[in-house]
Amino acid sequence: MCAGTVEVADVEGSAKGAGGWFSVSRARAVYDHPFHAQSDEALILDFANPERGAGSRLAVELSADSARELVRIIERALEAGQAQHRG
Q1: First to last CA, the chain
Q2: What domain range is 56 assigned to?
Q3: Which residues contact 21 (CB under 8 A, 6 or more apart)?
């Protein structure tokens, strides 16, 4: 049985779930067997506000290739956006 790899960070932000927008204070990145995605292993991103309970959670399961592409576009968006706002 695979235990998976878990990384946790305190974050500041918001997410939109079935009940609308909620604040996010915790992010987890887990590489393990997905619950829903159709692959053997996936990167599972979990954004939550533990103080508000299970209803304040958003999860995404991505293939390793998709997760790496997401990292690339996040970096590009941050670089371009920060450069634009500095100028």
Answers
A1: 52
A2: 5-86
A3: 14, 15
